[in-house]
Amino acid sequence: MFETLLIAGFPVCLLSLLTNWYSKVIVAVRWKGFLSFQFCVTSGVRQGSSLSPSILNVFMNVFIVKVRQ
Q: pLDDT tens digit string along 45-55?
């Protein structure tokens, strides 16, 4: 994802910030009142983040261009 943003011309300083932010995503699953062990998420975009739709759009744009080539 980050490589694609770089290809699309995303500013390197913001990409560095996003890389740092996304490297610290740790989650747990709650199911029937129980909480799982925490684990790192290493792919995808953050659920509920206002940036996620924009990041996904840039990624999909580059992906579609590559598929058409």
A: 777 777 788 88
